[in-house]
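Why this split exists: single-chain examples teach little about how molecules sit against one another. For that reason, every record in the complexes split bundles all components of an assembly together and asks for one structure covering all of them. Below is a record exactly as it appears in the raw files.
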Amino acid sequence: MEHQFYIDRLSAYFDNELKNEEFVIVKEHIDSCDECQKRLAELEKLENLFTDNSELSESEYWEQSAQKIEASLDAQTPTEIIPIKKTKSSLSLWWKLTGVAASLVLVAIFAFEQKDVGDELLMEEKNNSPIENRSASVQIAKDTITDEELSLGNIVADADDMIETALELNQPIAQPSQVITPKKKTRSKKQVASKPQPVKLEKEKVKTQQAPPVIAEIVEEKIIEEPAPVKLRTLEFQNGGGTIATSDNYIKLDQTSKVQSDNLVEDESESVATTQIFSNTFDSTLPNKLQDGFGKTAELEYWRRRVATNNDLLKARKKNTVQYSKSSKSTTRQRGKSTNRIDVEFTYKQIFEAYYHIAILTNASFEVKQAVDFLTMHADSLTTTYSSNALYYLQLYQNEMNRQENKKNQEE
Amino acid sequence: MRKNLEDSQSSNVTPTGSKSEEQKLIESVQNGNKTAFGKLIRIHQKRLFRFIYGLVNSFDITEDIVQDTFVKAYQKIETFRTGYAFYPWLATIARNLAYNFIQREQKKESLDKMTEVGFDPQSTDISALDNLLDDENKKRLYKAIGALPVKYRVVFTLRHFEKMDYSEIASFLKIPPGTVDSRLFRARQMLLGAVKDLL
């Protein structure tokens, strides 16, 4: 092994953090290597230097500081909840408001359900497998969201459940819902705004029955003709018109689909937007393969393509992002450019998700490493816009690995 | 994940043996004695200050965070389980506050710098800390730590001042243990370069 290999591990060796096998290998090397012994000695000296010289000296300052803190305690009692200085921001207020709004929405959902609105239509739709599954996935999402805590730990667990349930269903719609579910959950992590979805869904169902607009009629026909949802989406893209090779086109198309979705089921418009991003290079034969019991190879290929497509998109969008960053110094922000920023963020999320699945599915270690490195790099960037999402998938990956390890151990 | 994090943090708290002076003080505070809390402040503030300064590299911000930590601890003293060491509990509150601060600062960075190390207040108040360092070597060492990029400085501080092991650091910063290893390695290399003549 190269000498650098041992040098890189000296720090961990010094902290006694190497695992058994690695520890033995590195120790053997150090015993026979003068340079490594010298470097190890330097680390020890450095440690001692900082230990001996990090103590802060006695000063009047400490007494003054203690008195200042005591004075700030005078206004408090141990049972009172106080705001923490400087951590209070408009954001926290916003969160509180979101919470209140969310609880109101929940009440609305339950109230609405009790009215049994559009029962007949719902029964009809339940006979249609795509919609049945869609409502199943919505139900799953709703269950997740009704969890008041919304702690990340719960979300991770829920995400696993959601993916598992989606896989168990193994229906045509299950594949896209598997694609979309983590997104929903990500939304629920950020804000509870996704909660109104189930309500809107039902409302729109009623609407379509009472006064079906022309476009809705066409699409409904297609639902019946084409039970495979991926195909359905392909058709919708054709309706939307144009390719999405450039971000400009993407925005245009997005707007078109929005117009359509006004007449469609509201929930569907979002999933359409999700799939639009990778639809242009998406091999139309792949979804069929995926539907056949989720072949592992096909699924892997699907995620790989998604990475490739989104990387292409990212390149195009990043050019615009640079322009956006330059212009962000001015006081007014142009709408189009800010949309682009959101697009970039969204594209990153798509890539993170795809890499997560690649890491789980593949056996090729270099590919796993590439995926994990990518996630780690972005998680480490400490730029919360992306890193929280990268971290989320990293954590999800680690959880999955732990789960598999535990399973193995149990089997043994 | 946050839940798990809290679980792992609580594991840092180690039970102590017989009822110490500190335990009596804590019980006294829990019974409503504010003066006893003043004593706890005087016992722990120096160590806490050093730790937080290592994380945020700014005298004023450290002052604020230390103050907030004690106020928060006082508010939550009922939830502290007697029989456990007080400092680790305090340090957990403090480092969460400090880390929140760092993350907020990071958030202000532009998208273009997403892969770079952004936040570093470049301690303009270094002279304030100098008053608390009675030795030239100490001043140099604190300066060397302050000059580290934030991601290296945070890992080094957690390891060196708090003696946290790699998995604890990884869990707190939500990064893989391998990354902790590499960051600590880099931090040490940089520090070695900065203070080589003192070794």
